[in-house]
Amino acid sequence: MPSRAIKLGSAPCQALSLALALAIGSAAAAQSTPRPLLWKVSDSDNSIYLLGSFHALKPTDYPLAPAVGAAFADAEVVAFEMSPEEMNSPSLGGKLVSAARLPPGQTLKSTLPRAQWLRLERYASRRGMSLDAYRGIEPWFVSMVISLGEMAANGYDPKIGLDQHLMGLAATSDKRTRGLESADDQIAALDSMSPLEQQQTLSETLDEAQDPKGKIDELHDIWRAGDAATLENVMGAELQQKYPKLYKRINVDRNQAWLPKLRAMLDDEKSDDAMVVVGSLHLVGTDGIVNQLKLRGYKVERL
């Protein structure tokens, strides 16, 4: 879950990286234009462009495909999981840390099985990470710090992730922007993880840290290829199998909460065309936004 959520899933992980502030194959392949996970959803009046994000990228991932530029140019409004104002707010880091604080009397060490704590200590020693700084912090936060650190060590930068790139373009183009949910909503989704889910997440994070480049590049390669089938049948299915309750909270429930807002954009005769940029996993599969809008009778086409 950790790497998948950070790169293909939700903005809270991206928010954390900013608050703390996949190049696969041959060199020629790495410099090719990524195929976007981009769909156009329409009714008789309006269209919205759904774009799947990767929250940390490399300079070689740009420029984007012409289809993305055309969709962006057509959109009068650009919506993100979280509004640019909240995403870049100086207070966001403090909110995340406050949410991650353990109750009085508990420590990070006391929340983990002994073997897992010792494993975390070995990782921290190898990476020069001070666990004292996280003494009173929940494991989910530590898992994300580790994942984000491994991403940065392998050349992935959240400051040039697709969300941030398009937020910048929207600002310079004087396009209106909005968020589908608030920072508090996203933080609550992360902080809702049970102790067992947090332990499982940390365990997987430490597993991935043994071969971070391979894991990160695998996901990045899928995103660059625009491989919706692999996202759905491998990554999404694995997340759902390993963390069914968490998958429902951070993916299914949030998709359902966003659908009325997306339908309002489409159904309002006075509204303009819009681009909606969300984590790629939100778009694919039976529970994905693309399929859910198709089931509701809207015209859907992959661009």
Mean pLDDT: 86
Low-confidence stretches: 11-31
Query: How many DSSP H or I helices?
Result: 15
Hey, roughly how much beta strand do the residues contain?
5-15%
Fraction of residues in helices? 55-70%
Describe, in plain words, how this protein is organized in 3D.
Strands 4-3-5-2-1-6 form a six-stranded mixed β-sheet, with helices on both faces. Helices cover 55% and strands 11% of the residues. It is globular and about 60 Å long. With 303 residues, the chain is α/β, with parallel strands linked by helices. The chain has 15 helices and six strands. Helix 1 packs across helix 2, helix 6 packs parallel to helix 10 and helix 13 crosses helix 14. It has one domain.
Q: Which short descriptors sum up this protein?
A:
about 300 residues; alpha/beta; 6-stranded mixed β-sheet
Q: SSE layout and pairings?
A:
Layout: H1 2-9, H2 11-19, H3 27-30, E1 38-42, E2 47-53, H4 66-74, E3 77-82, H5 84-87, H6 92-100, H7 114-127, H8 139-153, H9 162-172, E4 176-181, H10 183-191, H11 195-209, H12 212-225, H13 228-242, H14 244-267, E5 274-279, H15 289-295, E6 299-302
Parallel strand pairs: 2-5, 3-4, 3-5
Antiparallel strand pairs: 1-2, 1-6
Condensed summary:
The protein is of the alpha/beta class. The chain has 15 helices and six strands. It has a six-stranded mixed β-sheet, with helices on both faces.
